[in-house]
Amino acid sequence: MAEPATEPAAMPQKPGSAGSGAEAAGELLELATRVASQARHGEPLEVYVSRGTEVDVRAYEGEIEWLSSATSAGVGVRLVTGGRQGFAYAGSLEEAVVAETLAEARDNATFATADEHVGLAEPDGVAPASLDLWDESVLSVPTATKVALALELERRVRGVDHRVRQVAYCDYGDMAFESAVASSTGIAACASRTMCSLSVMAIAGEAADSQTGTGISAGRGVASLDPGRAALDAVERATRLLEATKAKSARLVVVLDPRVTSTLLAIVSSALSGEAVTKGRSFFAGRVGEEVAAGALALVDDPTDARAFGASRYDAEGLACRRNVLIEGGVLRGFVFDSVAARRASTSSTASAVRGGYASTPVAGCRALSLSPGALDARGIMAEVGEGLYVQSVTGVHSGANPVSGDFSVGAEGLMVRGGELAEPVREVTIASTLQKMLQSVLHIGCDVEWLPGLAAGQSVAIGNMALGGA
Amino acid sequence: MEALVVERVLGAALAHGADFAEVFAEDRRSTSAVLDDGRVEELSSGRGRGAGVQVVVGETTGYAHTAELSEEGLLAAAEAASAVAHRGGKGRAVVVEPSEVRRRSEVAVLPESVEKARKIELLLRANESARSSGSAISQVSAAYGDGRRRILVANSDGLLAADDQVRSRFVVSCVAVGDTGMQSGFESAAFTVGFELFDVVDVEDVATTAARRALVKLSARPAPSGEVPLVLARGGGGILFHEACGHGLEADHIEKDASVFVGRVGEQVASPLVTLVDDGTMGPEWGSFAIDDEGHEAKRNVLIENGVLTDYMWDFQRARRRGRLSSGNGRRQSYRHLPMVRMTNTFLVNGGSDPDEMVAQTPRGVYVAKLGGGQVNTATGDFVFGTAEAYLIEDGHVTEPLRDANLIGNGPEVLRRIDAVGNDFAMCGPGTCGKDGQNVPVGTGQPTLRVTAMTIGGTAGG
Predict the structure, then answer these.
(1) What ipTM is given for this predicted complex?
(2) Which residue in the set B46, B182, B462 is minimally distant from A90, CB to CB?
(3) Which residues, 6 or more positions from A4, have their beta carbon under 8 angstroms from its beta carbon?
(4) pTM of the entire structure?
């Protein structure tokens, strides 16, 4: 910036985004209900509306690189006529646009194949958990304060360790999101939540030996953000990999960093989707009641846990979210279902419908997965394991982990574990197995549960007999 | 949107003494149809339109967007965007001049003019072909999608440019079941064209290719673990260059010293066999357009010539501050996003080797017919990509199929290890490139090539 940095003026609040989330979401529910009431006889009709505001700031070399503020809203209409489903969406809540969207959904329905399982959710009497997921500070704190947080984070990352030579990105981001779903089958639900985060990537070392580390701090409200911790995390992760080399190929125990575990659970969750299972796209299909994991392993999806970033009172079809036990004592107990997948599997919805936004139809998915914690923390697990590889981060997960076949092969970096302690850093290696074998080979589950943005908690996990591909 | 309105909005954006302002308006309509489990599950259509206003003061950019395309809505966005870039100077008036950009690909059949029933029929044909490819095929999903994106860009330099981008795609994925469990296969065809795509692309071929990939892997053995020589088949592995150096040559990473290619223009960064081009003008390819999302014409840019780094890729904002021209690489996912440096169609040009000879001269290695997705850390140069169809090479012959695995390498190292480039160039399947949370369509391409050693992450002993 040519001039000295000036404090930016506060962004003007857009109309409709002020006030509490509950009020604003109530307004959306009214709209959704009004449109849903236009259902014709024998035409189940569901209307989903959402609105969100976002602020994103990137800091670079003590200045604001960019600041973006936005409000967006949209509607998705799903209906069924004669067993055929139609869907249409629009990025607007204007009355004329919504009416056109409804007409388009009706037209689209005529082209689908009739299917007895297609339909909407129906109220099942389960009361929603009492959850407060809204922190007004995301809207009320001036933009200047948010900018200051990003600048402070960058300053700290650059100031902690002289080996940090650059900051690849340093961001503050927040969002306030409200949604409502109403249907002619009696559904009427609205939800609102806020989230904000600081995230940063530090680059340590010089050209030939550069290493990166990321740090994150996230919460519902601005006061929960901790730039100091995010900075230290990024710096430690980058600097401890300096002078990393490629390890020799071997079979060994890996200790997954909590963030890696969170990523792994997200992959496992796609194989636990009732839709994937009923359509024969999951290696878990037909295995309920069987031992699919190590005996101590319990996996639960609990969106009623307010600590989870995916927590929600209602699912995307307007049923009250509930705690679903998926694996217990190593035995597969069940899957997550939305209403369509549930009918297809002759069971009932587990209130696990999720949707990518107003432009997508609901599908079955997890929101708040976690493993039952064990007794040891990361240090304790490494002491038990003795020799192995601590995996700090993985890459290529979308191309290397297949929930259909279970084949698992990803890029990894981290540090060797020797004599129960972290030893020399390792880069440019792969770790591989199958998801089926990995679940069976879980040796330790950490007590260090850490809720991260995304659909699964992080915790340290040790897995035996992985193939390390290296030099 | 009228030129006079645009001029007033740009004037408002500059009112507080900014260096530069831009309005980007977008109107997008799309249709998708999905067949799964033997049924046409869903025909979905959608629309969205809006505009973003960008205001630049020095190194700082303010951005705000709105779905409200009235003058009032645009002025509110201009006000919000300029709040961050508040120098307190005087404003200035802007006069925009419409530019005539040559259309890259003429759309013969607008998808919106085609009856929905014809789109559905493609799905049914694909389903039938895939299922008749083998009794082990247990599940088929097929998806048709089309999109029309009309954009208008105007900025305080007086630029006013528009583009009408039509894209069509068809995707099939299959599951096969055998004694060894399940395997999946995937194939797609996607181009920056209208419904005439299906005059040249046979959906049955797309379906049988997807089915074959799943079937082949039923008898696949685990991939090796460790370093192996690698032959990448023509049109199957262009993502290697997208990851190994494409991202690292984007000027935003360069400016932040977050790329292993910083300061290396004019140096030998790859084997002399490597000439790499990024070209947004390639007719109907998936990553093509007439103008980029900053209003600048798509270009053909040579990035690496005979192994020597010739230039990086630039968006207009970064180029402007350096006093140079945009390379036509400023792209964004939608009006909700700021533009940044992105690739278009990135490809390796033909060399002189015979592809069959390449395999014959490889005693033991891995032959990759098709790669899946990849990922790179530009600061370290380490990158990965996954195989979607691969085989062992034994005694100079392609032999047994391998289960999917990731390959990992370091960009500059792998570029130096390319020891043969074939004379059989082909574009690869379409890709979706994600960066900083924004997705844009990109193309890749390459002739058959060989890398002397790369680490493959299978589970079998090396």
Answers:
(1) 0.93
(2) B46
(3) none
(4) 0.94
